[in-house]
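Before the break, one more example. Copy the sequence into your notebook; we will annotate it together after we see the structure.
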Amino acid sequence: MNETVTSPLHTPVRRLLAAGSCSELGVTRTAAGTNVAVHAPAATSMQLCLLRQDGREHRIALPGRTEGVWHGLLEPLAPGTRYGLRADGPQVPTLGLRFDAHRLLLDPYARTVVRHGTDWYGVVTDPADDESYDWGGDAHPRHPWERTVVYEAHVKGLSMRHPGVPESLRGTYAGLAHPALVEELARLGVTAVELLPVHQFASEPGLAARGLGNYWGYNTLGFFAPHDAYAAATGMQVREFKDMVRALHAAGIEVLLDVVYNHTAEGGPDLPALSLRGLDDAAYYLQLADGSGYLDVTGCGNTVQASDPVTARLILDSLRYWVTQMHVDGFRFDLASVLAREGARVRPEAGLLQAIAQDPVLAGTKLVAEPWDATPEGYLVGRFPPGWSEWNDRFRDTVRDFWRGKAYGVRELAYRLSGSEDLYGERRPCASVNFVTSHDGFTLRDSVSYERKHNEANGEGNRDGHGDNRTWNCGVEGATDDEPVLRLRHRQAANLLGTVLLSTGVPMLTAGDERGRTQHGNNNAYCQDNEVSWLDWSRDEQWTHLYDLTRQLTALRARHPALRPKDFPRGHHVRDTGVMDLAWFHPNGHQMAPPDWDDPSVQGVGMYLSGLETGGASFLLLFDAGPQVGPWTLPGAPWAAGYDVVVDTSATLSGRLQAGAPVDVADRCLMVLQVVDAAQSDATRSDAATARTTSV
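Here is what the structure looks like once it is written out:
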C-alpha cells in the first residue's frame, strides 16, 4: 500500500503502514515512524485521511485494534501535513452510536488545527520544535495564592487597540507578548493573567447568519491546540503561544487558562459530528436515559461525560500537555460542576476532581472552578475538594447589593470581606476568588451605569444574558452628562473595585475595568468581536482614578500581610496587646454586638486587621453604603493612637485622624485607614505619606 504523496511542504514522502501501538493517543513521532492511535471501540474501521495539495485525500486504513483503540505505524509524516479521520460503524443514536464514514473527523489529540473549506484538520507537528524551543531558562513564577491578583483578559481584546503594539501583532499571542503590553500589566500590579479560552474553538452556525461570530471562545473543538486565529503568522500558534508565556513569566506574571471541558463545539444531536461524536458518542457525552438525545446541563447542546475513563483521560492528558509543553501555571474550569457529574448525579468528591488536584504534574498549578452549571443541583459553591479554589458568586452578589443599598444588615458582607469562612472553612481563604465583574456580565463602569441589559446588538431580541444583575445606575440609565450622577458613578465604581482588592481571599479583576471600559450596557458580549469588547487604552480622565486606585491597592496588598492573610483571621487576641487579629466595629466606635449584624439601619461596618503577628501595618477599613454623611467614631486605645488616611473614595478626608474621636464620613464611601500606634510620632506618616490619597 505504498504511495508517494506530496506534503504541504513540497516534500515527497513514502508512507509504509505497519501495526503500530495503542499506548499514546493521537499522531506521534516515534523512532520507528509516525504512530496513529484513535479511541473508537465500536467502529468497524478507521481511516487516516491525508490532505493533498490539490485538495484530494489519501486514505490509509489503520490495521491495529487493541482495547478499543485503532492504531497504525507509518513512515514519518512531514511536519505541516494536514490529516483527519473517518470512522465507519453502526448508526444507532439511541445507543450513542453515530458513525458516518462520509464525515471527516478531527483527531481529539491534534496539537495544531486548521480549517480547510468546511472541514477541520489536524496538522502534523515536528517534535523537534518542542525539543528545540528555547525557553531561555523560563520558570513558573509560582506566586503563593495569598499574593495572587488575577486579571481576566481576552488575548485578542487586550491588544487590538493598544497603541504600543504594532498593528501586525494586534489581537494575537505575539501582541500580548509585546513589551508595551507586558509592561502595562506589570505596572498595574497583577500577578496572573487568566485568559479566556485559547483552545481551538469554532463559532456556532447561527451566529454567521447574523453577521457575528463567537468572540469569547467557549466552544472548544480541540483540547490540545492553541486557537489558530490568534497567531500573527499562519501556522505559528504553538511557537507564538510559548513566546507569550515566556514573556509574561519574565515579568513575573503567571498564565492561567480558562478551559472548557464541559461541552464541545459539536452542539446538539441535530448538528454534524466534528470529532468526539463520530468516534465514541456514548463515552464522550452524557446521554438521556431514554436514548432520545443528550443530557444538556450546560445550555450548549451537549454535556461532556467527565466520569467516563476515556473522557477523563482526554481531559487529564490535555491539562498535562499545557503544563509540561506550554508552561502554563493553572486553569479556570468553565462550568466545573460538570466535572463532578457521574451520569445525572452531582458528586463534589467525584474522582476526576480528585485526580486533577492530586496529579503529580497538576498538583502544583492553580486550579479554579466555576462551581456551577446550568442546573440547580449543579450549584456547588463552597463544596469543591481540597486543592481547588472557586469563583465566589456569593461575594459578587453580596458586595453589589451592599453598595447599591440593598443589604439588610452587614452580616453577609462581613463573611465575604473576611474570606467567606462559612463556605471555605475546611480550606483556606485562597479558596475564594473574589470578584464583582467578569467577562460574563456588565463591566465595572456599566454596573454603575445600567440596571437593565442592552444586548440588542447580539441579534437575539435582547433575550440573551442575565436579567438579575444587582446593579444600580445611580439615577439615570446609560450615558449621561449629569455631573452629580457621574460623580456618584465614579465613587461607586471605586467602592466596588476597592472592596475586591481589600477583601481576604484572591482578588480577580476584569481587563479594562481599571480604565472605565464600557460595553454600553451589553452584559453578554460573547459575539461582539469589535470595539464593544476590545479594550480601549486611550486615557479617559473621568475614569483614571480607577487605574490609580488599582495600582495603589495592589501595591498596598503586596506590602502588608494583614491585607492578604494566609489563614482565616479568627478574632483572637494578639498576645497581651488588647487587640484582635480581626475585629468589627459599628459606626459608633464600639465593637459589633449580636443585634447589630442584622439591623437594617446599620449600613456601614469597620473591619480592623492587625499586622502585629503577620508583620507590616494594621488597618481599619471603613465600608459605608449609607446615602447620607454620617458620623463615625474611630476606635481608640488599645486599637490605635491615630489613623492615617490612605484611601478615601469621597475625597473628603486626608492626613491623620484622631483615634477615639468622631469624624464625618461621606455617603457611599470606602476608606483605608492605616493604624498609627503610640510609638509613632505625629511626624511619622505611613503609606499615606508616599501615596496620593485616592479619591474621585
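The CA atoms of residues 258 and 586 lie 40 Å apart. Residues 4-132 form a domain with the Immunoglobulin-like fold (CATH 2.60.40.10). Try to locate both features in your own notes.
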